Each structure stands twice: as structure tokens, then as C-alpha cells.
Amino acid sequence: GFCTNLLLSQTPKHILAQTNNNTEIRCELRKEHAGVYWFRWSQERQNFEFLIFSNLLGKATYGANIMQDKFSVHGVSSHTSSSLHIRHLHASDNGTYYCSVSQSSQLLLGSGTQLVDVLPLPLKTTQAPRSKKPVRCVTKSKAAGKKG
């Protein structure tokens, strides 16, 4: 079975990333372990997918249909932390990522990190709504003040 556990804390909680960028998820381990598993929950596909297992020697075992050049794990030899590196982000990488260790036939899951992939937009497009928003807020508050 699976159960979430405070002995495995993940940072960050949320990642807002851009297509083709790389990212990293860190897992602090407060439990003795033989290695770290990484899983992804996909809301869209409604499945829990095994990505990679890295043992204490740093040897990686990948899940079925997982691209080995996309995922890598670092820092397991320190026994206290593990980092999942994800390269060349794509919309299909969206989901909640969990680090996990095995303990007495249970998999203890970390706190989870939600990855949201956003397409890069031209600079002008992203700046325009930002400058408009505060103006709208000011107008609304002035109108509310006059009514009162």
C-alpha cells in the first residue's frame, strides 16, 4: 500500500515551469532506506506512474516507457536527501511528483510537488495584463468609496 508520511518532505510544493526548461525536486529523508523511488500522479491520465528508483550506490532503475535522458536522481549517497532532475519539460510532464522509500512492505510517500507546465509567451503579451490589473483594482475601490 501507499501512505503519505511527514518523514519525507519535498521542496518546492509547486513548480510553475516553461516548456523545454529543466527543473529539480528535492526530497529530505528522515528514514533509513535502501534507495529512493520517484512516482508521478497524472490528473489528466488518472494514473500513478513509476518513474525511477535510485539505490544508495546511485544506480538507477527506470519504469516502463520512461525516457532515461529525461529523469535523473542525485544526492542519494548522502542518505539524507534526494533530488529528481527533469529535463526538457513538456505538457505531458504535468502532475504531482512523489519521492518514496520502502519500509516493511509499505511505500512511504513524500509530501508531493505539483508541476505545472506553461508555454513560453512573447514578453509583450505577458506584461500587458500586469499593467492593466492594478488600474482596474483602483477604479473599483474608488467606485466603492463613492457609493459608501
TrEMBL record:
Annotated membrane topology: Single-pass type I membrane protein
Localization in the cell: Membrane
Gene Ontology biological-process entries: adaptive immune response; regulation of immune response
Ig-like domain segment(s): 12-110
GO molecular function, one term: coreceptor activity
A Gene Ontology term for the protein's cellular component: membrane
PROSITE patterns cross-referenced by the UniProt entry: IG_LIKE
Coiled-coil ranges from the UniProt annotation: none
UniProt keyword terms in alphabetical order: Adaptive immunity, Disulfide bond, Glycoprotein, Immunity, Immunoglobulin domain, Membrane, Signal, Transmembrane, Transmembrane helix
InterPro entries: CD8B, Ig-like_dom, Ig-like_dom_sf, Ig-like_fold, Ig_sub, Ig_V-set
Domain of life: Eukaryota
Protein name per Swiss-Prot or TrEMBL: T-cell surface glycoprotein CD8 beta chain
Organism: Aptenodytes patagonicus (King penguin)
